[in-house]
Amino acid sequence: MRIDILTIFPEMFEGPFSHSIVKRAGDKELVKIKIHDIRAHATDKHRRVDDYPFGGGAGMVMMIEPIERCINALKAERAYDEVIYMSPDGDLMDQSMANHYSTKGNIMLLCGHYKGVDERVRDHLITREVSIGDYVLSGGELAAAVFTDAVVRLIPGVLGDETSALSDSFQDGLLSPPVYTRPADYKGWKVPDILLSGHDRNIAEWRHERSLERTRERRPGMQPE
Predict the structure, then answer these.
(1) ω into 66 cis (within 30 of 0)
(2) Left (φ > 0), alpha (ψ -120 to 50) or beta: where does 189 sit?
(3) Which residues of the chain have pLDDT under 50?
(4) Judging by DSSP bridges, how do beta strands 189-190 and 185-186 pair with one another?
(5) Burial class of residue 96 in the structure, from the number of CB atoms within 10 Å of its CB (0-12 exposed, 13-18 middle, 19+ buried)
(6) 3-state secondary structure at position 43
């Protein structure tokens, strides 16, 4: 898989992709993540990428020309399954969306900033808009990092235990059950006896019941698949 991220603040991605699962995926050559500075495609000497909005109002708007030039330069090199704009009013990301994109080959992510991008970018250059929640961030970079992490960890071969992702919250429409590790008794706080019993079937049933219970309490609107 290849993920190309378009941004005016490329340095924001130095941390999220330099550690843990995403880094290991890159080291295994299971994913290639490329960060592209939109300013490199600006046409004036100041590398300007934003301007005042027509009609007045507060804030600045990202200009269409450098964004289109960056997108077109990448499209000239390869075909893309999706060109996604990270936007607070896009389709709300969930686990099924992460599953869907983990099977794709090439994805492009556009990070907005300021008051957003010129609407013509959204009308003519974007194939889908995605939100990670009903709140506003300073820019799309953090959202793009979240999207990338959620997708990359599902690529076959990325996780050490291939069954690990299958037991994550939301995969089956339920939240994950409680988990415990050593010591079995810490200051009188004990691990449930069932988990120490060695009876796999009983443990599986206990975990499923706890998942149902936790989902009913914390996400009553969720439906198990």
Answers:
(1) no
(2) beta
(3) 163
(4) antiparallel
(5) exposed
(6) coil
